[in-house]
Amino acid sequence: MAKTKIIILRIVVFLLVFVGTAFVINYFMNENPPLLYDSDANIRVWLDSNRNGVRENNEPFLSNICVWAGYASQFQYLGGWQKICSNKYFLSDSSGAWSHFFPGGSCSDIYNAINPPENYFPTTPTIANGCSVEFGLSQERPVVEIKSQDAGSYLAKLHQKEETITYTKAGLLILLISVFAGFVAFKTIRPVKAKAGYG
User: Fold this and answer.
1) Angle at which helices 2-31 and 151-188 cross, to 10°
2) 62-119 residue pLDDT tens
3) Residue in 194, 185, 197, 196 with CA at minimum distance from that of residue 7
4) pLDDT tens digits, residue range 9-34?
5) Sign of the alpha-carbon dihedral angle for 78, 80, 82, 84
6) How far apart are CA 42 and CA 35, in angstroms?
7) Is 128:111 a contact under the CB 8 Å cutoff?
8) b/e per residue 180-190 (b: at least 16 CB within 10 A)
9) Which of 37, 135, 147, 155 is in the most buried spot, having the most CB atoms within 10 Å?
10) pTM score, two decimals?
11) Three-state secondary structure along the chain?
C-alpha cells in the first residue's frame, strides 16, 4: 500500500513539474516574439537576349509568364503548376512584373518560382528565396546551361525538412523536461524505511 502511494505521489509531482516547466519555457519563449513585417513579393521576368543571366537596359520584360511566390507549404496546396498557370492572376503583366502582398510575412520565408514556357530557356535559377527576384529567359540555349528545377518537389522537400527540424526540437525539449520532472519527482519523494526496533 505504501509503495502504491509513493508511485502515485511521484506521478503527481512529475506531472506538476512537467507542466510547470513547460509553462515557464513557453512564457519566456513567447514574451518577446520575433517582429513580423508586412512583405511584398516582387517578381520581374525579362528576355535575356545575350543569355548571360544579367539584365541589361536594352533587354525587354516579358508578359504572360507563369510565376508564383509564397511559403514552402503553399505550392502543393494550390495544385502545382497546372492549376497555378491556369489562373491569370499568376501571369506577369505587360511590364513583366508580378507582385503579392504577405501580411506579417518575412522575406526569408518567401520563395519565388517561374514556370518557363515551351521554347524558352532559363538563364537564371528558376527558384529563389526573398522578396524581390528577377528571372531571365532566352529563346536560345544559354551559354551556361541552367536546368529548370521542379518547384513542386523542391518546395515539398524543403517543407518536409522544416517540419522535421521543428518536430525534432519539440521532441528534444519534451524529453529534457521529462528527465528533469522525473529527477525532481524521484529525489523529493523517497520511500520511508522502517526503523529497526530496539528491545
Assistant:
1) 130
2) 999 999 988 887 877 777 888 889 999 999 999 999 998 887 777 888 889 999 998 8
3) 185
4) 888 888 888 888 877 777 766 655 44
5) positive
6) 21
7) yes
8) ebeebbeeebe
9) 135
10) 0.64
11) CHHHHHHHHHHHHHHHHHHHHHHHHHHHHHHCCCCCCCEEEEEEEEECCCCCCCCCCCCCECCCCEEEEECCCHHHHCCHHHHHHCCHHHECCCCCEEEEEECCCCHHHCEEEEECCCCCEECCCCEEECCEEEEEEECCCCCCCCCCCCHHHHHHHHHHHHHHHHHHHHHHHHHHHHHHHHHHHHHHCCCCCCCCCCC
pLDDT value at residue 29: 65
Cell numbers that stand for 146 in this block: 541552367
CATH superfamily, region 39-149: Immunoglobulins (2.60.40.10)
Name the residue ranges covered by the structural domains of the chain.
2-33+158-188, 39-149
